[in-house]
Structures are given as structure tokens and as C-alpha cells.
Amino acid sequence: MLAESARGFLDEKAPVKHLRDMRDAGKTHDPALWKEMAEMGWAGILIPEEFGGVDMGHAAAGVLATEMGKTLVASPFLSSSVIAATALKQVSDARAGEALAAIASGERTYALAIDEKSKFNPEGTEMPARREGNGFRLSGKKTFVIDGGFADRLLVLARTGDGLTLFDIPADRAGITRETQSMIDSRDAARVVFDEVEATGEDVLGQVDDAMSVLKPALEAGQAALAAELSGVAAGAFGMTVGYLKERKQFGLLIGQFQALQHRAADLWCQTEVTASAIAHAGRMLDADPENATLAVSLAKARATETAKQAVIEGVQMHGGIGMTDAFDMGFFMKRARAGAEWLGDYGYHAETVARLKGF
Amino acid sequence: MAQETEELAGFRAELRDWLEENCPAEMRDGSSPEDHTCWGGRNWVFESDAQKAWLNRCAAQGYTVPTWPREYGGAGLSRAEEKVFLSELARIDARLPLQSFGIWMLGPALLHFGTPEQKAHYLPPIARGEVRWCQGYSEPGAGSDLASVQTKCEDKGDHYLINGQKIWTSYADKADMIFALVRSDREAKKHLGITFLLIDMRNEGVSTRPIKLISGVSPFCETFFDNVVVPKVNDEGISAVVGTVNRGWDVAKYLLTHERSMISAMGTGLGGARPLGAVLKDDLDGDLDTSLRAAAMKAEIDSLAIGLTLERYKDMANSGQGVGDASAMLKYVGTELNKDRHELMMSAGGSDALEWGGAFGDRPADWLRTKANSIEGGTTEVMLGIVSRRVLGLPG
Ligand SMILES: Cc1cc2nc3c(=O)[nH]c(=O)nc-3n(C[C@H](O)[C@H](O)[C@H](O)COP(=O)(O)OP(=O)(O)OC[C@H]3O[C@@H](n4cnc5c(N)ncnc54)[C@H](O)[C@@H]3O)c2cc1C
């Protein structure tokens, strides 16, 4: 149900062409589209009803993310409605409630500022938040802040003495500069520089020196939704490819009649099914037993990364020359699959997590 | 290195002196990831005086096409001497002075099928980088099934009249000449009605339209022929047909074996490129995770072994004849490896490699470009088909 209605809306309002048009116009965000998604309840998919959300849970968020992935929708859904919403839900104060309400209504967008180097490594965060009087001073640089170019607020992970602390601050606070990155997948991302940015205890989300009790669930929610989105990317690319196998002729035959391609398409479908199980399982675990979802989430992200990679590589290859052209959409899928592979932990990161939890 | 014969050692010493004197300092950055390829041609704009001097000095020695005969602009080097030549270039990290479709593709085909007059007319300008060629094979309906090309070639007595369309023509908008497969007999079986024709891109009725690649650049084009008149014999008495009319497929196939050998070499990272492991280690401050490390080790092993395979097949090929159907094997393993290597470099670059022109420069664009390696010059599937049927003799 949710999938079908989402599909109907997205096919009309956000087909791949929408991303292409935004890219060609030099835009990375479409506020009007996000507003419509919010009106349908998507922005509040994880947010309790008392704050204006529809509270349908992570499995449902995964369904939406999958559908968005199929047409490479560029929206703040993951950053704001999955990651930030999950972080804010870990805190029960009036300010968090207000923030959740603002996300659910689509008024407020968030971006997660964690990465400092080229690889995801939250535990290795170095940027200091120096204590000063009652508050903190943040200085340093974050990179690959997805949606960071337009977000209203930033969740910033910084080192406070022995521990890590998560700050929730407005993106236009004095001392913050944002430099938009020109991303291959045409999504929004920014490098964010913090120059002696002031923060108070009020700006801390959760407890000082204990970012992870708030951040870990948020990251896992994000990773699971991103895995779902990647499965959508794979499905989108695969759909185009199967269509082409049934349409393109060479040697007087449909290329789908060649067994070399049949078997690879069939393999891809099999891999897609296996990955779908991992993704559905991650969503269920986050809904039913979030304390113990880490393995399921890493499994999903690792599988989805690999399946999406296989789908786009086969997608280009089976299209031949036309697959290499910008005028054709397959390249957009390839680029999104690559960016999605890196965000929130790459294959190696999640494979290590699985290995660790499995006692390797 | 095994002991060199006295003769080879002498050649090496001589060459070393020559390079010392003649290779400009600016041209000694052959392993730089930036693209400094000199393609030559009438419209070529040299990036520097050094690039021009390097080309001209090499051309004067025959070093742009070292194994071609001297009379056609080469240096007449033997295979052993060619190896010495390449190793000496690599030693000082010198760029190749010139690369082109003329050198890789048309030249070998002309050396094999051309008349003495065609060779004398067309080869030296290729060697000197004066004329740039492009390849007019593929059409919208004839990609893997190349022998079904439809571009029409009508015999009009003293000239041919050409009508039709080519696609994916690399650098057609920059080329001076095109070697094209055209349909000269519509009644014959498809392989027996194709002619290999040389056409001046300045001819009236030839036009090109660039196509943008997923990597953002536009190196290839659609090429249109609209009532193009191609004299059978040009002003200097040179025939426009290579080989025999209606037997162009033989030329086309032969040329492809050279093209495929050339493309296969791109993946091995030989010729001065740094080992993958070193690149990845630098990118990640030595912090390679287990899966990336294992994949990089495999790619490095494959790259070394495939490099040796290329050398082995070149050694076996008797004097400039190419490697025949084995080129399909070389192209398959070389291009799939190149794609893997670039996947690994993207992984190693992490989020920094997701930015156009970011910290890693052209790395993302190069990665996307490599996806074409297993398509251009015949797809991986076509290569494996050739190995199955022509090498293994499987039915079908
Ligand atoms: C970057 C780039 C540069 C190029 N430069 C040139 C150039 O300079 N000049 C030129 O003439 N051409 C050029 N080409 C064209 C190239 O040679 C063709 O794209 C290629 O031969 C494939 O043809 P196609 O694109 O029509 O794909 P198709 O032939 O339609 O193939 C589609 C898919 O079907 C598969 N397939 C087809 N037949 C079979 C079969 N029998 N069994 C199994 N699988 C099969 C293919 O392998 C492929 O995966 C270039 C292409 C690229 C991408």
C-alpha cells in the first residue's frame, strides 16, 4: 500500500528527470517537493503523533526510501526524517519535541556533520569542542555533510575531553561557513568549517561526553534506510536493464535471448532477493529490538552496497554504448550507488562490524 | 633483467644519450594522472613548446611509431629494441610523444592491407602527428553486430556516394580523416558487402554532433554522411578503398585485433604507473581495511600477471602481425581489470573521490570512463564469444 502510493506520487513528481533537471539548473534541493512529501506524512514517518508525525516505524521508512531510490529522489528524508528524528527521539525534553514537530511539518531540515576524513569513522572524531565557561567552542572542519548545503540545523559530533558530544545547532550560527561540494551524484553535500563556534549546554543533544547513546540509534536508522534506498537504486537500474534486454536487437535477436546476458540478469535478480531480506530484517529489528539491531543493519548496508554496485555495472555494460551517455539515465544510478556506498560506512566498515559481532 | 646482447646494450646506451639530450624536462611526467596525451592532427593545439619539440624530435627519429618501417616514418625497431625503447622512456618517466587511432588502428591495417602508394601517402603523416584519424565503425543498429552496418556506399563511376550515420565515433569532431565501414553491396551476405573506406572529414556533407559521456566530457560523436562524394582516387592518385571493395570486413577485423590489444594494455598499470597498493595506502594514511586490502592485492597480482601475458603475446606475434583472436582474451582480462582497479581507487578515495575535481582531481571522471573499456572496441560478451567459438571451437 505505502509502496504503491509512494510510487505513484514519485513517478509523477520526482522521476529521474527531476534530478537531472535540478542538476542542469545547478540546484540540489527542491523545497516545494519536500513540502508535498511532508504533507503526505513522509517527513514524520518516524515521529510520534503527539508531535505531528505518523509514527509508522523503520520498516515503513525503508519502504519509502526504497521507492525514492528507484528514481534517485534527492530529498532531506534520510538526514532529517530518519537520522535527526531518531536522534531527537532519544531525548525527551520540550526542545526536542519542538524540533520533531518542525521536522514532521517539513519546516525544518537537518544535516549530520560527522565525517572529517574521506572515510566514515565516528569513533575517530577529532574536531574539538573546547570547554569555555559554561559552554563550548567548536573549531574544525567536517566534510561530506549530506544536505549540509541547505539544512537549517546541523547535528555536529565533536570531541569533548575524553568523550564525544553531539551538538544540535543552527547552520547559520556565527563562525560556521559552508562550502557546497560538487558531487558526482548531483546530491547536496557540503564541507562545513567551524571557527570558534559558540555552543551552550542547551545545544547538547543528550549528555556531554556521551554522544553515542543518542547517535548510535540515529546512525543505525540512517544506515538501514540508506540500505533500503540503495536497494531501490539497484531495482531502478535493474528495471531499465531488463527492459532493454527485451527491446534491443543485435544479430537479428533480442539481446535478452543471449544466454550470457540471461544468466547475469537472473543472478542479479537472485542477489536482489537476498538483499531485500536483509533490508526488511533490519527494519524489523529497528522497530522491535533496536538495542540489538547493529548486526542486522550492517548486514543490510553491506549487502545493499554490493547489490547496487553489481546492478549499475551490469546496467551500463548491458546497455552498451548508450549506457555510457549522459543523456541516458543509467549513469545517474551508477553515481548514486557509489555515493551511497560511502555514506554512513562503506562495505569494508560494515563487513568489519559483521565480522566483529560474529566473533571473527 | 637477463643479460642483454651487446647490440641491444649499445642501442640502449645510444638511446639513453639521445633521450637525455632531446626529451624536454616538462615531458618527463609520463606517470602523472593528468591527461597530457598529444593526439596530433591539423587542429591540434600544443599545450607547450616542449610538447611540440618532443613530438618533432621523436618523429624525426621514427620514435612516434618505433616498430614501423623507416620508409613510413618509423624507426624499424625489432621487438627486442622496442622493449628497450619503452623501458628507457619509463626510466625517465617520459610521456609518449604521440598517441592516435592512426598509430593504434589504421597504421597496422594499412601496413598489412595497403598498397605501397597508400602506405607512402598515409603512414608518414600519422607518424609525424600531422593527420588525426577517427574510427567510423559503429552505427545505431550495428554495435556488437558490426557486420550489419548500413551506411550506404554507391558506386558512381569515378566516385562513391556515401549516405548514413555512424555513432560513438570517438573524437570525430577533432579528426581530419575517418576510416569507415560502408555497405557497398546490399545483396551479398552481410560480411561480404562491406568496404573499408578512407574519407576526409572536410568533405561536404560530413557533420558531427558530440555526445556527452557519464563522466561529463564529450569525446565521442554522432557522425553523419549526407550525400558525401568520395573520389575513388584522390588528386595524388591514391585509392580511397583499403583492401578490396566488398571485402572490407577482413580489414575491419584485422584492425580490431590491434585495437583490442591496445585497449587491453590500459588496465595493467605498467609503464611507470605506481602499484595500486601504494596508491591506496597513501589515500588512507595506511589504514586499509581487510576487504579493501584483499581486493587490492588481487588486483595487483592480476595486473602483474596480465602485464606479463601482454608481453608474452607480443613476443609471440610475428613481426607486427598482431596477436589475432587472442586479442579478444587480452582485451577481456585487461579491461575488466582496469574497471576493478578504478573501483578500488574510488573506494580508497572515499567521500573525497565523490567530488568532481575535488581532492582526487579527475579520479571520479576516470572511474566512470573506464566503464566503457569493456564496451568500446567490442564488448566483453563479444570477446568471450570470440574466445568460445574461434579459440575453443565451440559450436554456435
Ligand atoms: C567510450 C566509447 C568510445 C567508442 N568509440 C568508438 C569509435 O571511435 N568508433 C566506433 O566505431 N565505435 C566506438 N564505440 C562503439 C562501441 O564499439 C560499441 O558501443 C560496442 O561495439 C557495442 O555496441 P552497442 O553499443 O551497439 O551495444 P550492443 O551491441 O547493443 O550491446 C548491448 C549489450 O548486449 C550484449 N550483446 C550483444 N550481442 C551479444 C551476444 N551475441 N551475446 C551476448 N551478449 C551480447 C553486449 O555485449 C552489450 O552488453 C565506442 C563506445 C564507447 C562506449
Short description:
Chain A is an alpha+beta fold and 360 residues long.
Query: What structural class should be given to the helix and strand makeup of chain A?
Result: alpha+beta
| Helix-strand sequence of chain B | HHHHHEEEEEEEEHHHHHH
CATH top level label of the largest domain in chain B = Mainly Alpha
Helical residues, percent of chain A: 40-55%
> How many strand segments of chain A?
9
| CATH topology term of the largest domain in chain B | Butyryl-CoA Dehydrogenase, subunit A, domain 3
CATH class of the largest domain in chain A: Mainly Alpha
Q: How many strand elements of chain B? A: 8
**Major sheet characteristics of chain B:** 4 strands, mixed
How many H/I helices of chain B? 11
**DSSP helix fraction of chain B:** 40-55%
Strand arrangement across the biggest beta sheet of chain A = 2-3-7-6
Low-confidence stretches of chain A: none
Largest sheet of chain A: 4 strands, antiparallel
Mean pLDDT of chain B: 93
Tell me what the structure shows:
Chain A is an alpha+beta fold and 360 residues long. Helix content of chain A is 50%, strand content 16%. Chain A has helices at 2-13, 16-24, 31-39, 58-70, 77-89, 94-104, 212-245, 259-288, 294-319, 330-342, 347-357, and strands at 110-113, 129-132, 135-146, 153-160, 163-170, 176-180, 189-199, 249-250, 253-254. In chain A, α4 (58-70) packs across α7 (212-245) and α5 (77-89) packs antiparallel against α6 (94-104). Chain A is globular and about 80 Å long. Chain A starts with a helix and ends with a helix. Chain B has helices at 6-22, 49-61, 79-91, 101-113, 116-127, 248-264, 276-283, 290-316, 326-349, 363-370, 380-391; strands at residues 133-136, 152-155, 159-170, 177-183, 194-200, 206-211, 220-231, 241-242. Chain B is globular and about 70 Å long. Chain B is an alpha+beta fold and 396 residues long. In chain B, the strands form two sheets. In chain B, strands 1-4-5-8 form a four-stranded mixed β-sheet. In chain B, a hairpin with an 8-residue loop joins β6 and β7. Chain B folds into three domains: 6-107, Acyl-CoA dehydrogenase/oxidase, N-terminal domain (Butyryl-Coa Dehydrogenase, subunit A, domain 1, Orthogonal Bundle), CATH 1.10.540.10; 132-246, Butyryl-CoA Dehydrogenase, subunit A, domain 2 (Beta Barrel), CATH 2.40.110.10; 252-391, Butyryl-CoA Dehydrogenase, subunit A, domain 3. The complex binds flavin-adenine dinucleotide. Flavin-adenine dinucleotide (FAD) sits between chains B (134-138, 143-144, 168-170, 220, 372, 375-379, 381-382, 385) and A (248, 250-251, 255, 258, 260-261, 317-318, 320-321, 324).
